[in-house]
Amino acid sequence: MTRVHSIDDMPKLVGSDLGVTDWLLVEQSMIDEFGRSTLDMDWLHVDPERARREGPFGGSIAFGFWTLSLLTHFSHQVGMWPKDALFALNYGLDRVRWTAPILVGSRIRMRCHLQAFEPRDSDRYLVRTLNTVELEDGQTALIAEWLGLFQGHPVRKIADPAQ
After folding, report:
1. What are the two backbone dihedrals, phi and then psi, of residue 34, each rounded to the nearest 5 degrees?
2. CATH of the domain at 117
3. Which of 119, 131, 157, 90 is nearest to 7 (CA)?
4. How far apart are the C-alpha atoms of 115 and 120, rounded to whole Å?
5. What is the pTM (predicted TM-score) of this model?
6. Closest by CA position to 27, among listed 77, 102, 78, 136
7. How far apart (Å, rounded) are the C-alpha atoms in residues 91 and 108?
8. Mapping DSSP to helix (H, G, I), strand (E, B) and coil, where does residue 13 land?
9. DSSP per-residue letters across 42-109
10. What domain count does the chain have?
C-alpha cells in the first residue's frame, strides 16, 4: 500500500489525479469466486464455454459489482489513503456507470482523481474521488464517484504533570 500524503497535504491535491494503478489481469477464478461469494452464478460470468457459444461478448465477462468492489484494492495503490489516517469508512457512491464489459483475460487499471477533501467533526474528513477503470485497449469500463470518511488520529490529551 502506498501512503505518501498526509491529511494536511490532501486539500492541496484537490483537483488533481492521485495516480494510476498497475494493470490487473482479470482471471476466471476471480470471477468464479465473486459469483460464489455473492450467490450469483450467472452463466455469462461463470460459464466461459456457454458465454463463448451463446453470449454477446465472445466469452465470459466480469461482474459489474466485482469491478466496483476493486476500487478499494486500487485505492491503496494510488495513495488515496493519507499516511496519518487511522482508518477509513465507505460513505457512499454518488454516481456509478458501467460503460463497457470487461472480458475475462483482459487487463484493467484505475485512475483516481481527487475531487474534494473536506474537514468534518472529530478529526474526520470527507473525501470524494472520481475513479475510472480502464481497459488496456483504451476503453473505459467503469466511472464512479466514491465518497469516504477518513479518521485522523485523535488528539490525545496529555495529563498535566503538575496535577
Report:
1. -65, -45
2. 3.10.129.10
3. 119
4. 16
5. 0.88
6. 102
7. 25
8. helix
9. -HHHH-HHHHHHHSTTSS-B--HHHHHHHHHHHHHHTT-S-TTEEEEEEEEEEEEEE-S--BTT-EEE
10. 1
Q: Considering the domain boundaries, does residue 112 fall inside one?
A: yes
Q: Range of 118's domain?
A: 10-152
Q: Which residue type occupies 115? A: Q
Residue type, position 5, single letter? H
In this prediction, residues 28-39 reach a mean pLDDT of 98
Compute the average pLDDT of residues 107-131.
Answer: 95
pLDDT at position 4 over 80: no
Reported as a single tens digit per residue, the pLDDT across 42-95 is 999 999 999 999 999 999 999 999 999 999 999 989 988 888 888 999 999 999
DSSP type of residue 2: -
The cell for 121 is 467533526
